[in-house]
Design brief:
The complex is a heterodimer.
Chain A (H helix, E strand, L loop, with lengths): L1 H12 L2 H17 L3 H24 L3 H5 L6 H33 L6 H59 L4 H5 L6 H29 L3
Helix pairs in contact in A: 1-5, 2-3, 3-5, 3-6, 5-6, 5-8, 6-8
Chain B lengths: L1 E10 L2 E9 L4 E5 L6 H8 L7 E6 L2 E2 L5 H4 L2 E4 L11 H11 L5 H10 L13 H13 L5 E5 L7 H15 L5 E5 L3 H7 L2 E6 L2 E7 H7 L1 E5 L1 H6 L5 E6 L4 E5 L2 H7 L4 E3 L3 H10 L2
Parallel strand pairs in B: 3-8, 3-9, 6-7, 7-8
Antiparallel strand pairs in B: 1-2, 1-4, 4-5, 9-10, 11-13, 11-14, 12-13
The chains are: A mainly alpha, B alpha/beta.
């Protein structure tokens, strides 16, 4: 796994322009925008894309087939992708969250600790769901076909959510009550629930990825 | 070292049914036309595709039970894939070092210099030949016991090909090693292989030691009349030609001695493949 991690970080080394662009965008957003929650989520999602980029690069010109002729197991490869996702998104989330907090103080913009915590946890959930969904899709369908599958999944999810909201409205069910229930809970309960939920999502995603990789032919 | 027993793989319009063996100390060639099943065989050996039957053993262990450590003893060149094009050769060194306990960094650097492979250029900018050389160097510089080389010389010029074959010969000087190699350049195989398997439409159609193939096999060029009088016992394949028939035999000397009036050619591997594939 160490060799795979080195490979992926070496690939990232060639993405200097991407990092420079992300740094500039972060700085501009933090200095001009008042929606710090959006900045935190956006930059974290950008960092999450790096893991998917490395899968695309591995897949390029059937390179993944060659990778598995080296002393690498398919299980080890899948584990490395999740670890790499964690290693690239968590420091970015921490850094951009700290920067956002600092920027709000420097610019004297009201950004409470509760809002900040909500933004961090929200970003954590978004990135967990995103990677949990996209890593197995990319491993199963490869770079080209996964783009189509992603569009179908995201489009389908949007339609399902919109339809669910409409159905609730039609039936007279106020779904916002469920969300408001979180207000009454204390932070430690919410945090624990969050970590458990993220863990379950990741574990299910990992099992799917492993299944897809084990069956994939090169 | 490597044993395939009735390995089967079915695709639409193609069925692989392959039995072959690579002995320790031997360089074994696998030859056949495009689409004959060479790459499918290599992929089955390397576990890159699932098989529909039969068994594959490497170092006496079923390929499905191979441990990561066992894989360190194998060096591979693939005809249709390689290292990520977004890496540079200098990036590969720490990767290979962490994957192979016996990776010989100095030797790898020395060979890269010898073959003029730049350290600081992205692999995607390499020519096909350079990519192939890089794969071969990576395969032979970690003390592998078995090399599995699918078209390692394709895209190389004559000089580079010669150097590369010399490297493989040098690799084989150490005991306990073996190579399975495929190539469409018959000269490569004639010069390096101890034995050769010929594959066609997924099936092994011929197996012979290279020396026997070159010394005993031959092509007879005969007219219709000569063909009718010819002893057919040692004729393996015949093909209708404008002048009469071309016949492939594994007893060239027999026909040279008993039929002095007919043309008996030594025949190279290319011609033998042609006869095996197109003859009846």
């Amino acid at each position: 796994m160490k060799g795979l991690l080195i490979k992926d970080f070496k690939i990232l080394k060639g993405q200097k322009q991407f990092f420079a662009a992300v740094l500039v965008v972060t700085f501009v957003f933090l200095m001009t925008n008042t929606s710090f929650s959006f900045v935190i989520s956006y930059i974290t999602v950008m960092a999450g894309m790096l893991t998917l980029t490395t899968i695309s690069y591995d897949d390029h010109e059937n390179g993944m087939g060659y990778l598995f002729t080296l002393p690498i197991s398919r299980k080890g490869y899948v584990q490395e992708k999740y670890l790499f996702g964690f290693m690239t998104t968590m420091p970015v989330l921490a850094a951009v969250s700290a920067a956002a907090f600092l920027a709000s103080r420097v610019r004297h913009i009201d950004f409470t600790a509760e809002e900040w915590t909500g933004a961090v946890l929200g970003s954590l959930l978004v990135i967990t769901v995103m990677l949990s969904l996209l890593i197995p899709i990319e491993l199963k369908f490869g770079t080209e076909r996964s783009r189509v599958v992603m569009m179908v999944v995201f489009g389908g999810s949007f339609v399902v959510i919109c339809a669910a909201v409409k159905v609730f409205e039609y039936l007279g069910i106020d779904w916002k009550i469920w969300v408001n229930r979180f207000d009454g809970l204390n932070l430690s309960v919410i945090l624990t629930a969050f970590i458990v939920a993220c863990g379950i999502i990741m574990a299910v995603s990992y099992l799917f990825s492993l299944r897809f990789m084990t069956k994939r032919e090169f | 070292m490597l044993r395939l027993n009735k390995v089967k793989k079915e695709y639409k319009g193609f069925q692989l049914d392959c039995t072959l063996e690579v002995q320790e100390g031997c360089v074994t060639g696998l030859i056949g036309k495009n689409g004959a099943g060479k790459s499918t065989t290599f992929k089955a050996i390397l576990g890159l595709i699932s098989t529909d039957g039969g068994s594959i053993e490497i170092f006496g262990r079923p390929v499905s039970e191979m441990r990561i450590r066992d894989r360190e003893d194998i060096g591979v060149v693939m005809s249709d894939s390689g290292f990520s094009g977004y890496l540079m050769v200098c990036d590969l060194i720490p990767i290979l070092k962490s994957m192979y306990r016996n990776f010989q960094e100095e030797e790898f650097r020395r060979q890269c210099e010898k073959f003029r492979i730049p350290m600081d250029k992205k692999i995607k900018e390499f020519s096909t030949g350079m990519k192939r050389k890089l794969q071969v160097l990576a395969a032979i510089t970690h003390e592998a016991k078995l090399l599995i080389l699918d078209e390692p010389t394709s895209g190389l010029d004559v000089v580079a090909r010669d150097k590369l074959l010399d490297m493989l010969r040098a690799y084989m000087e150490q005991e306990g090693r073996a190579i399975l190699i495929s190539s469409h350049i018959s000269g490569d195989l004639e010069g390096i292989c101890d034995d050769i398997y010929m594959i066609d439409e997924g099936k092994i159609v011929l197996y012979e030691e290279t020396d026997v193939l070159l010394d005993s096999y031959g092509i007879l060029k005969v007219t219709q009349e000569q063909y009718e009088k010819l002893d057919q016992e040692h004729i393996l394949r015949s093909k209708k030609e404008e002048f009469g028939y071309s016949c492939m035999t594994d007893q060239r000397q027999f026909y040279q001695e008993n039929y002095p009036q007919i043309t008996v050619e030594k025949g190279n591997i290319d011609e033998l493949i042609m006869m095996m594939v197109r003859g009846e």
